[in-house]
Amino acid sequence: xxxxxxxxxxxxxxxxxxxxxxxxxxxxxxxxxxxxxxxxxxxxxxxxxxxxxxxxxxxxxxxxxxxxxxxxxxxxxxxxxxxxxxxxxxxxxxxxxxxxxxxxxxxxxxxxxxxxxxxxxxxxxxxxxxxxxxxxxxxxxxxxxxxxxxxxxxxxxxxxxxxxxxxxxxxxxxxxxxxxxxxxxxxxxxxxxxxxxxxxxxxxxxxxxxxxxxxxxxxxxxxxxxxxxxxxxxxxxxxxxxxxxxxxxxxxxxxxxxxxxxxxxxxxxxxxxxxxxxxxxxxxxxxxxxxxxxxxxxxxxxxxxxxxxxxxxxxxxxxxxxxxxxxxxxxxxxxxxxxxxxxxxxxxxxxxxxxxxxxxxxxxxxxxxxxxxxxxxxxxxxxxxxxxxxxxxxxxxxxxxxxxxxxxxxxxxxxxxxxxxxxxxxxxxxxxxxxxxxxxxxxxxxxxxxxxxxxxxxx
Length: 459
Prior knowledge:
single chain; 459 residues; mainly alpha; Amino acid/polyamine transporter I; 79% helix
């Protein structure tokens, strides 16, 4: 049983600890400091409560997710909304994971769809070969990611401390690093809201994954202890990612300064470095900036470091490989969980459902090479993730389940209010792709309106 607990902890950790821990959450640990961290614990605990409740629902009843939704919650339509949200999250995660891989090899953005297709093909192939040992396989990949992320954070810190020598760069790096443990930074309402939603997204709510995990969890497994371990691991790795970004920013500052002083670097190249550094500086200081605008700022770091600082190849490889492995563990779990949901709903075999989920993920990831389409898909989780989490938790109110209905109702209200607020920000944004992304997020909820039809059809 200890082995199962260990594997389940790392399986959940592999899903939870993904690209958002690198691309978005470090922004708030740097701009809000420990105040932001303490506030982030609230949505984190709320999410852990939902994760536990959802997994326990299928663990205790021994129903599969669609059976639970149909026979107990009487809401079979919800699974279609969750599946569509899962497909979008799979495509977005695959695109940005592959983006990191492209930067390691110095490839242009045109190669990202090819790397994305390769990543999904590799994930599907590994899941097919794993067969009955999927849990062990996913857990091993997750363990490798955790070890690599911690090692890369330590090595990047050492590299930055040894190479960042310019007084201004040292001052900037120390400021970014000390901000993470500071209580003196001010909070903003808009920034805190975005941080809360980012926490929900990073914990993977809204895709139905935890119901599926509970359906094959051994009855004797103590999920509370497993989730407590994941909770601690999430905090440790989130801080590791924040320090990784902070030290990388210091190195980026020095690279930008040296480029302007180097007569061999053309003025237009120096200006590009300045613009990229300015984006990085804004990332680390402007808490109100939408996380949707901050995601790709992270990828400015390799562009600033390359050929401008010692050991640039090592630093870039460490940073981007950590990001890629974080994404890969999430991708594998999304494909496996999505295929189980699809096979249950559509009565497909495991391999065909794996292939179908993989193809849809490839389509979304490949389409994201177009800037406006990329913005549209990225907006979806940041505009409706909280609403999707509320929809996902609705079956917990069923009378046949033993969860505290008052607590579940309060959590759903919190998610609903947060979701409506972020949806409002997206719908009123000046950019049309952002508005379209918010509308696409609302489209995911359309199947819920057809719940009565599905119930009648099943009768």
